[in-house]
């Protein structure tokens, strides 16, 4: 499939100036989607397992880390100080952010100058992973992104959305009918990630993910399940088993909802 065709096949949700214009042209969706909130530390499998589970369920998937990564990418691109909350906020004032909720992930950022950057690959770079905690530590930035996430989900028009990150079960969607904390031991997470990152040893990957988790955990708790949140430890589960575990939790919640109707 060409880039253009795959972008058309996927559902993209825009934010910012372009989103406001689009909202005037389209009708509001009918019902709020069923929300599946998934949190967890780096490399626990949140993104890949959430994506596969969402496909099985016919739901969309919102990867919230992609927005923080895109913001870090944009700060570097515009030489903004990542530690300065106002400078990072100024990017949010002008940017138009778009991410696909179905199909292959595509993330684009426009920084107010009309140039649309496809950052899908760039935001996964090792240096962006090392910088992203510096933008995600700002409470004002988090509040604005959280608003954006809620809007993206509400306007998706989908029957359900799996939304994954660090504070989805606790801050972004604490009332979601399904809330999961996905964990795995640091060694297992590093092992999985090392397979993806050429040139980095297991020890380097382990050090990187532990350092990022430690910084991120100063802002939000994604190690302990909040009350009502189901813990899924994937340390001893293969990929298919992890997906099955999430799908089962969602199906059980759907069954309970149907019984009470
Ligand atoms: N249960 C599992 N068994 C084996 N491999 C897995 C399992 N879950 C995830 N993986 C693999 O582990 C790697 C990391 O998973 P993923 O990118 O989904 O983690 P993540 O929690 O979203 O990480 P990050 O927060 O750093 O983006 C991927 O290569 C994925 O395919
Ligand atoms: N809800 C979230 C999601 C992400 N972050 C920050 O973004 C970084 C990248 O997230 P990945 O899921 O792609 O690894 C992460 O390290 C956090 O700094 C966040 O704060 N809240």
From TrEMBL:
ATP binds at residues 40-48. Belongs to the cytidylate kinase family. Type 1 subfamily. HAMAP family: Cytidyl_kinase_type1. CDD domains: CMPK. Keywords: ATP-binding, Cytoplasm, Kinase, Nucleotide-binding, Transferase. Its EC number is 2.7.4.25. It catalyses: CMP + ATP = CDP + ADP; dCMP + ATP = dCDP + ADP. InterPro entries: Cytidylate_kin (IPR003136), Cytidylate_kinase_dom (IPR011994), P-loop_NTPase (IPR027417). Pfam families: Cytidylate_kin. This is Cytidylate kinase. The keyword rRNA processing does not apply. Residues 36-251 form the Cytidylate kinase domain. The keyword Mitochondrion does not apply. Its main location: cytoplasm. It is found in: Cytoplasm. It comes from Leucobacter alluvii. It is an enzyme of class 2 (transferase).
């Amino acid at each position: 499939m060409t880039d253009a065709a795959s972008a058309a096949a996927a559902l993209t949700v825009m934010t910012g100036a372009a989103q406001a214009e689009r909202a005037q042209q389209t009708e509001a969706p009918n019902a709020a989607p069923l929300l599946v909130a998934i949190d967890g530390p780096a490399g626990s499998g949140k993104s890949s397992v959430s994506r596969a589970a969402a496909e099985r369920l016919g739901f969309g998937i919102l990867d919230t880390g992609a927005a923080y990564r895109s913001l870090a990418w944009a700060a570097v691109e515009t030489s903004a100080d990542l530690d300065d909350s106002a400078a990072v906020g100024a990017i949010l004032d002008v940017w138009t952010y778009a991410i696909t909720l179905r199909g292959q992930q595509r993330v684009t950022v426009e920084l107010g100058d009309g140039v649309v950057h496809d950052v899908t690959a760039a935001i996964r770079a090792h240096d962006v992973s090392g910088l992203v905690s510096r933008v995600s530590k700002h409470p004002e930035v988090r509040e604005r992104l959280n608003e954006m996430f809620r809007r993206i989900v509400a306007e998706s028009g989908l029957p359900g959305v799996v939304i994954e990150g660090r504070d989805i079960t606790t801050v972004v969607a604490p009332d979601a009918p399904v809330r999961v904390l996905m964990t795995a031991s640091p060694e297992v997470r590093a092992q999985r990630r090392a397979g993806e990152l050429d040139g980095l040893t297991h020890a380097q990957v382990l050090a990187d993910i532990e350092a990022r988790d430690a910084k991120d955990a100063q802002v939000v708790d994604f190690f302990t399940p909040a009350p009502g949140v189901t813990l899924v430890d994937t340390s001893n589960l293969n990929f298919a088993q992890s997906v099955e575990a999430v799908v089962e939790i969602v199906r059980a919640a759907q069954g309970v909802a149907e019984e009470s109707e």
